[in-house]
Design brief:
The chain has 138 residues and is an alpha+beta fold. It contains four helices and six strands. Strands 2-1-6-5-4-3 form a six-stranded mixed β-sheet.
């Protein structure tokens, strides 16, 4: 394994470990200022402030933890991927989604990364929205 691969794997693992702690400022410090966020079955947002707003909405509507993380990295360390499960609870109704009543869910998620200067420059998340909707009773 190259040093670049190892650094990317460590960054991806840190990204999710920090997500799980709930320390959003530490989490945001892992991103480039111009980070691109490709939202599952949604739009594309750019910049740390857009990501901060996204996290605020997510924290209001969901309580989530990443479990069983497996990370992958390209040899040159510029790209990475992760597969994991999200264990969550739907706390508050999110716009355009079914009413929240504290439903619990467990989803397989895939994520793709581009890395630059030791930070996340792009994150793309994918999960099965229909599976989530079935789990929350939609």
């Amino acid at each position: 394994m190259t040093n670049a691969q190892n650094a990317t794997l460590q960054l991806i693992q840190s990204y999710y470990a920090t997500f799980n702690t709930g320390d959003r400022e530490a989490f945001l410090s892992l991103l480039t200022e111009d980070v691109r966020h490709d939202i599952n079955q949604g739009g594309i947002e750019s910049g740390v402030e857009a990501f901060r707003a996204f996290l605020q909405r997510m924290d209001r509507c969901y309580r989530e933890q990443v479990e069983d993380l497996v990370a992958f990295a390209s040899e040159d360390g510029t790209r990475g991927a992760a597969e994991f499960f999200i264990r969550g609870e739907y706390l508050s109704t999110d716009d355009g989604l079914p009413p929240a009543t504290g439903q619990k869910y467990y989803l397989r998620v895939g994520a793709f990364f581009e890395l630059r200067d030791g930070r996340v420059a792009r994150i793309t998340n994918y999960y099965n929205l229909q599976d989530w909707l079935a789990q929350v009773g939609a």
